[in-house]
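Example record

One chain of 170 residues, shown exactly as stored in the release files.
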Amino acid sequence: MVQSVELLFDERGETEIRRQWAALADAGISSPRGGTHRPHITVAVAREIWPRIDHQLERLTFTPLPVRLGGVLIFGSRRPIVVRAVVVTEELLALQRRIAEVVAPCPGIPANLAPGAWTPHVTLARRVPPERLGDAVRAVTADTDCPAVVVGIRRWDGDARAERIVAGGR
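Predicted structure tokens for this chain:
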């Protein structure tokens, strides 16, 4: 499994993504609803994030950050992922860069999460069968861009399936 650092939404943003997850489920597309799943923007991933890195993350200066949930994108081809883009801003990139610098000493960081290579997004559905992509896109493309606020940073432990808030709230 992996360890990650994720940005959490305010109630409006979280409600909107959960509504889209429900629309996908209604269309017969598996989405990350229920259990420990929570709408988020992943900003860093590593095979292991050490406790000393967690302490450094807790010391980051964090203030709520307005963001805009944008259009629908498809990542991959054999096992496509349907995502909602997060419109890039200088402030969002700066926050991701600060977090990536803290996590940089950890092992197993994917290249696509390096500053300058990262594509901010919220996952709506994973491993969508290619023949169901049209259904998935139709289920969520009627939605317009949506403002939201990033109100917290969490550490997700994929092995323990547990979260820990390291900055902000919710």
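Notes: The two ends are 24 Å apart (CA to CA).
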